[in-house]
Amino acid sequence: MKAIAVYPGKKDSVHLEEIAKPAVTDIPNEMGVLVRVLKVGVDATDREINDALYGQAPPGDKHMVLGHESFGIVEAVGKKVRRVQVGDYVTATVRRPGKSIYDMIGTYDMTSEETYYERGINLLHGYLTEYFVDHEDYIVKVPKGLKHLHVLMEPMSCAAKAVQQAYEVQRRMRVWSPKTAFVFGVGQIGLLSALILKLRGLQVFSLARSKAGTLNSKIVEGLGSTYVSTAETSIDQLVKSVGKPDLIIDATGSSQMAFDGMRCLGLNGVLVWTSITGADRKIEVPSDKINLEWVLGNKLLLGSVNANREHFESGIRDLALGEMMYPGIVQQILTNPVEGLDRYEEMMKLLTNEKAALKVYMNIASE
Ligand code: BGC
Ligand code: ZN
């Protein structure tokens, strides 16, 4: 069968690779789930792997199959599988456990080992192919009523983890009850984070460079968040008019913005960084000022990566609630379908364009 792969470490090596079709019996103890892939989303991570910024091939292979945002339909299950049935719509988690204690209890997104194993990203093949198989523990059912949001399950899981982690660490405050949040960035993670925070009842401001009127700004408004163009209103001006937020989520992909967030967080607040910045940028920061404010304000900086099964499940519940609260809005994120695995060059081009598409995904098979 066909797969879209790269040679990790080699720039611009995206290509079609012929690979063997997996079988449900590849997974021991009759716990395998064979999935026929319908759609796979791609993001900046895929672009940066093709730019050879990170990513390693699975041991024994020169190539690595790309793709970590999966959506498919169950084609076969091992006898002991209980979570899903043939015909169910599913997605799959991305990271697989290493050997740390966090890996052993299902929180592989929190591994304390330097090496991490992620399908389509590092040391494991991904989902940009026709079929994949995995243990049922990593397969997550997608409700039929959400199949129009297909490849958003994985990005949603990362947003769900980021928000959940923020609430989790803020239990240090005993009575934390955030009122206002700033979300930096209106890409998929920024938009989905804004949705989750709106569903938790916060007043949300979504910050991005472009002037209002873009699709992204319309989605922000459709979700009940307030769009702020930093080209028109600086962060300082925003803080002057609405105060410092209790929570900031940075999802811009700009380390400059990530650090800017440190200048405007409210007392006792939490700033969450979610972007992976693979380059080597350096900026100057007002370190004395930040140091002082952060100590005097009991402020917290939190990094959040990946997501485990629980975050997929809670993310899916929030997508369902989101459809009730803001019908038809989230699907507007799904802007750029590419038809068929053969068109991998078109896929990569859409990811590389300066005015990058909001969401690129591949239609691999129909039901
Ligand atoms: C993926 C995450 C992954 C992270 C780091 C992101 O693009 O969505 O699942 O953990 O990259 O590799
Ligand atoms: Zn991703």
Question: Any key phrases for this structure?
Answer:
367 residues; Quinone Oxidoreductase, Chain A, domain 1; Rossmann fold; 2 domains; seven-stranded mixed beta sheet; six-stranded parallel beta sheet; 27% helix; globular; binds beta-D-glucopyranose; binds zinc ion
Report what the structure shows.
By secondary structure, the protein is an alpha/beta fold. The chain has 2 domains: 2-142 and 335-363, Quinone Oxidoreductase, Chain A, domain 1 (Alpha-Beta Complex), CATH 3.90.180; 157-303, Rossmann fold. Helix content is 27%, strand content 23%. It has helices at residues 44-50, 101-104, 153-169, 188-199, 215-222, 235-242, 255-260, 287-296, 309-325, 344-352; strands at 2-6, 15-18, 32-42, 64-65, 69-77, 89-92, 95-96, 117-119, 123-124, 131-135, 139-141, 180-184, 203-208, 226-229, 247-250, 270-273, 300-303, 336-339, 360-363. Strands 3, 5, 6, 10, 11, 18 and 19 form a 7-stranded mixed β-sheet that branches. Strand 12, helix 4 (188-199) and strand 13 (203-208) form a beta-alpha-beta unit. Helix 3 (153-169) crosses helix 4 (188-199) and helix 3 (153-169) crosses helix 9. The longest helix is centred in the middle third of the chain and has 17 residues, at 153-169. The radius of gyration is 20 Å and the shape is globular. The mean pLDDT is 97.
